[in-house]
Amino acid sequence: MPDSPRASAPRLPSLTGLRFAAALLVFGVHAYSFIPVGGAAHQLGHLLLDPGDLGVSFFFVLSGFVLTWAARGPGPAPGRGLGRFWAGRVLRIYPAYVVALGLAVASKYIGDLVDPVGNRVNQVNGHNLSTSLFLVQAWFPDDVTYLGINPVAWSLSCEIAFYAAFPLLYLLLRRLAGRALAISAVALVALGLLMPAFAHAFVDPAYQRWFVYILPATRAIEFALGIVLALLVRSGAWRGPGLPVASALFAANYLIVNLLPHQVRDTSAVLATTALLIPAAATADLAGARSVWRHPVLIRLGDASYAFFLVHLTILTTGMIILGRSHDYPAWQAVPLALAFLVLSYAVAFPLHRYVELPAMRLLRRRQPRRAIPAQRAPQPSEVGVG
């Protein structure tokens, strides 16, 4: 696909708002998992919150989309070498990640003091510390390693692998024309849906969940799909429903997820509707169409969603170890408790975003040559996507 070099492309603020929604889904499933409730509240939580793991799939597609949207010219890092591109990605995710890792280690020791027998949420040892620091934990098939010290961090292990592969994937996929891109998008969705069946047929049952849900090579399907979708939108070849219809389809899809087989439910259950929603939000921004995801509050929450993602489970687990999980909480207690953890997580996330994440990203930018600032610019990878 010919790609004329352009200094920038319009911002896509709706994607930042959608980051908050995806992070909220992930928070929801963890709140449902760690705040015990019974009766009708448990059943409602199973319907609305239990599929929240799918927010990670949304993040992976979004990450590929945004990196591609921000790329201009013949390569993924115009005006910069690949070394600078990769350094930028490391500065994007690693400083805040290390701070969150330290909080998770502290959480473990707090938990040991409060409940030395029952505190088994995360394990701190030399192996887990080294795999976590180097962000390679997702390549190990045992859950003690890939869940490690901060259990949500396995997805960052995937992201680092995606960043390493992005220049090659981008250079290969950008050669495709509109029809070939559309076929590729459909093929990638189908491939994602087939992965659980492949694992069932060819992977040891003990490792099937790791292969389907954790392994970076498998989850790269979603990242590659994001690249293809961005190329379709950028080339003007995207044909899909508008944002209201795409949002309704995603919501309906989400509500029937629990009817699907377990491995499909946790990974590819909303892949097709995610592939409709992200381009729909992008094209709504390009056309100036109405989008609730552009609301300033949602954008503010979306900006801090990476920091929120890093710390929310640590706060949830530490809080519930202190409060105790020996009994079911009635709904009138569980809901305010979950909301309190949500607010507390953002109370930690906002300073982490402002004082660690943003200064780290500015570090590389200050060393870049000054260039004319365009009237509009592409959304930077720091603004949307998981990491």
Write a structural description.
The structure is a single chain. With 387 residues, the protein is mostly helical. It has one domain (13-365). Helices cover 68% and strands 0% of the residues. It has 16 helices and no strands. The chain has helices at 13-34, 39-48, 54-70, 82-114, 126-133, 143-146, 154-173, 178-202, 208-214, 216-235, 243-255, 262-266, 271-287, 296-303, 305-323, 331-365. Helix 1 packs across helix 14 and helix 4 (82-114) runs parallel beside helix 15. The longest helix has 35 residues, at 331-365. The protein is globular, with a radius of gyration of 20 Å. The chain starts with 12 loop residues before the first helix and ends in a 22-residue tail after the last helix. The model is unreliable at 1-6 and 371-385 (pLDDT under 50).
Give a short summary of the structure.
68% of the residues lie in helices and 0% in strands. The longest helix has 35 residues, at 331-365. With 387 residues, the protein is mainly α.
What percent of the residues sit in helical stretches (DSSP H or I)? 55-70%
Task: Flag low-confidence runs.
Answer: 1-6, 371-385
Helix and strand content put the structural class at mainly alpha
- Average pLDDT reading: 88
- Strand runs, count: 0
- The best one-word shape is globular
- The N- to C-terminal Cα distance equals 27 Å
Q: What does the main sheet amount to?
A: none
Q: Report the C-alpha radius of gyration, rounded.
A: 20 Å
Beta-strand portion reads: under 5%
Return the domain count. Answer: 1
Total count of helical runs of at least 4 residues: 16
